[in-house]
Design goal:
heterodimer, A: 397 residues, alpha+beta, Cytochrome-c3 Hydrogenase, chain B, 3-stranded antiparallel beta sheet, B: 339 residues, mainly alpha, 12 helices, 2 strands
């Protein structure tokens, strides 16, 4: 480097500094091990300070190949797999699959079994939404609602376990009915299987507790000004965008689209019950929270009606011991707590399906992330991601 | 102080020992309080078995466990700065104890510039946080450290402005002087002998408490740590004894800022009708009681609110707290002249 002429150097010190300060963007790998990615989601975020410029979700860390595994298992074994897709709503995953098989076989579950399926689906919805109620404030930094929501969720889990024998993975549906855990072993042929004693009354009491915790959460979270400051107007998804991205479930309804498969498809006898479909107005994080809270209240309403009107009768229709499903194909979808859950089942007249295609809600719901997170703030990234309430098992399958 | 050097060193050792003997046990008590209070807020039981009754030994057990952990330094870290950071944080916090009066004579060093020294020294710990964030060689730590720096700049000002109003009302910067001024406070010629919280510094107290929460990086202002966003912010890479020092620093900071707030606004060690050595003993307990009360409020807020966003934090500081602090100073000054 040559020595500058002192006069030139003097002039240079006078010259205005025209070089812009360079702030190169930083690539931040959020996940796959991160406290708020709900499992092993990885987000490759380009951040400029606190501002997120773009986000690329990387999925597949949780891929377990269930569609392929289903091709080498009998229909009864597959319910054990589909349980584990969205593991916080295990029971609700079984319904569309088992109904698809029943439609292929041509049997229908007895009314009492259908009612039990419906009650358990709604209880699964309560448990899944209560988990959201607990984890979402935690992501915003409020650790206390977690304990309140989980405390009451435990009552629901206990009842599900009492009925099915499994807290998370009930594996409870059979083709043509349901199979309570009580009365297994040598007694199965002698004792007529039915609900555990006192189960219906216990469920009714649990619903009161769930409603009470909803009031508590309303006070603690919905009415909390700091929560509102963090969520109102954050992560807005307009209705047309939500439809474009194939979103479903509470995320879609928060954007104002009143689409609920419980009203549109008769997989379970929802037409016998009176309930509302809560929708949001703005499609922001706050609406997604409130819609889920309202859905819990609707679910308790449905469960109460179902307990009042549950018919008597057998729990299982007559199906052959070795079940060969006639050749054919069908698609059945139902309203999972996370959104639309569907199975496309192809049979070639064998004991195992030829192909099972799984349509899960979280996968489509997550696809909105790159669009939604562009130009968000880093704290909002966590708030938005949490508000979509996805489960990685449901994304990757 | 200006006697023989032996006396100076002896006094130094005694005073440092005294500060540690007060700050660390009280911090442990507050840590235990946080464990138990948070448990009851969350309808849990909290620690139960360690130590026999109510799990009182849980903070000690935690400390012993942390001491046994490996002291890891990440390969990408700037090792010297990384290792130094926790000391800076703890130093900055402990240094504030030097001027806190626990009684008329129970004060390590009664500085004439008490508040000035205090506000200067309490900023040091944020320097340590910035060092930790920068030197960890981790992007989350970096963001956390920079957030802490932004937070310091924003919230040091309201803290100073709130304290200035107290200094104006008391007419002194010495903390002992402020306590005495509250003990003899008058309004409209009436000798009320009430703490400043009840004689005009309500807004100042609110500003001071909110700014203290931000200085301490506690929820709702814990963006530098922000577990759900930045894993643990600047603490992400720390383990073992260095993590313990950060942890202790946080709670010691709670004690020191709580003690300062009690001194400035709640009358400090002063008890009506007591003087001399009786006040030295009872006053210290009274001050500790007030510190515990404030710590309870801090803990209560911590377990009730979510955290704010970084821009909301800045908005709160620059658009609300600082203007309110300025108005508070002007109002205090006017009252001071008029009355």
């Amino acid at each position: 480097m040559t020595q500058l002429d002192p006069r030139v150097a003097m002039h240079m010190s006078d010259a205005a500094v025209s070089v812009a300060l360079e702030t190169p963007e930083m690539t931040l790998n959020i996940g796959p091990q991160h406290p708020s990615t709900h499992g092993v989601l990885r987000l490759v975020a380009k951040v400029d300070g606190e501002r997120v410029e773009s986000v690329e979700p990387v999925i597949g860390y949780m891929h377990r190949g269930y569609e392929k595994l289903a091709e080498v298992r009998t229909y009864a074994q597959i319910t054990a797999l589909v349980n584990r897709i969205d593991w916080v709503a295990g029971f609700a995953n079984e319904i569309p699959f088992i109904v698809a098989v029943e439609r292929l076989v041509g049997v229908e579950a007895p009314a009492r079994a259908q009612w039990i399926r419906l009650i358990l689906t709604e209880m699964t919805r309560i448990s899944s939404h209560l988990l959201f109620m607990s984890s979402y404030p935690l992501e915003l930094g409020a650790p206390t609602p977690l304990m309140y929501a989980l405390r009451e969720r435990e009552h629901v889990m206990d009842l599900i376990e009492g009925m099915t024998g499994g807290r998370f993975h009930p594996n409870f549906n059979r083709v043509g009915g349901v199979k309570p855990a009580a009365g297994g072993g040598a007694n199965t042929k002698k004792v007529i299987q039915d609900l555990p004693a006192g189960w219906l009354q216990g469920t009714r009491d649990a619903m009161d507790k769930v409603d009470a915790v909803c009031d508590e959460l309303d006070d603690l979270v919905t009415g909390n000004e700091l929560i509102q400051a963090r969520t109102v107007g954050v992560g807005v998804i307009p209705a047309e965008k939500a439809i474009e991205f194939g979103m479903s479930g509470p995320n879609l309804r928060a954007s104002g689209v009143g689409f609920d498969l419980r009203k549109h498809e008769q997989v379970l006898p929802y037409d016998r019950f009176v309930f509302d479909i809560p929708t949001g107005a703005n499609g922001d994080c706050f609406d997604r929270f409130v819609v889920r809270l309202l859905e819990i209240r609707q679910a308790t309403r449905i469960v109460r009606q179902a307990i009042d009107t549950i018919p008597s009768g057998p729990l299982q229709a007559k199906v052959p011991r070795i079940l060969k499903v006639p050749a054919g194909e069908t698609y059945v979808r139902a309203e999972n707590p996370k959104g639309e859950m569907g199975y496309y089942v192809v049979s070639q007249g064998d004991r195992i399906p030829y192909r099972v295609k799984i349509r899960s809600a979280s996968f489509s719901n997550l696809s909105v992330l790159p669009w939604l997170l562009a130009d968000a703030l880093l704290p909002d990234l966590v708030a938005i991601m949490g508000s979509l309430d996805f489960v990685l098992g449901d994304v990757d399958r | 102080m200006r006697g023989t050097p032996v006396n100076f060193w002896l006094a130094l050792v005694v005073k440092v020992g005294a500060v540690l003997a007060v700050a660390l046990p009280v911090s442990l008590v507050i840590i235990f309080g946080e464990l138990k209070i948070s448990a009851h807020i969350q309808s849990r039981i909290g620690p139960y078995f360690a130590g026999g009754r109510w799990g009182w030994a849980q903070p000690l057990a935690d400390a012993v466990k942390f001491l046994q952990k490996e002291d890891l330094v990440p390969g990408a870290a700037d090792a010297t700065v990384y290792k130094l950071a926790p000391y800076v944080v703890l130093m900055g916090t402990l240094a504030t104890f030097v001027i806190i009066p626990f009684g008329p004579d129970l004060v390590p060093e009664n500085l004439d510039l008490g508040i000035f020294y205090l506000l200067a020294v309490s900023s040091l710990s944020t320097l340590g946080v910035l060092m930790a964030g920068w030197a960890s060689g981790n992007k989350y730590s970096l963001i956390g450290g920079l957030r802490a720096a932004a937070q310091l700049i924003a919230y040091e000002l309201p803290l100073v402005l709130a304290a200035v109003a107290v200094a104006v009302q008391a007419g002194t910067l010495s903390l002992n002087g402020i306590v005495e001024a509250q003990a003899t406070s008058e309004i409209f010629g009436l000798s009320l002998h009430l703490p400043y919280l009840f004689t005009g510094q309500v807004i100042g107290f609110a500003i001071f408490v909110v700014a203290s929460l931000a200085e301490l990086s506690r929820i709702p202002f814990d963006m530098p740590i922000a577990e759900s966003e930045l894993t643990m912010g600047y603490l992400t890479e720390y383990s073992g004894i260095r993590f313990t020092m950060f942890f202790l620093g946080e709670y010691a900071g709670m004690v020191s800022l709580g003690a300062v707030a009690s001194t400035l606004y709640l009358g400090g060690y002063w008890v009506p009708g007591l003087s001399g050595s009786a006040l030295n003993i009872v006053g210290a307990l009274v001050l500790l009681g007030k510190v515990m009360l404030l710590a309870f409020v801090f803990i209560w807020m911590r377990w009730t609110f979510p955290r704010l966003r970084e821009d909301q934090l800045q908005t709160l500081a620059w658009k609300w707290l600082i203007p309110a602090g300025l108005v508070n100073i002007v109002a205090t000054a006017i009252f001071k002249v008029v009355l």
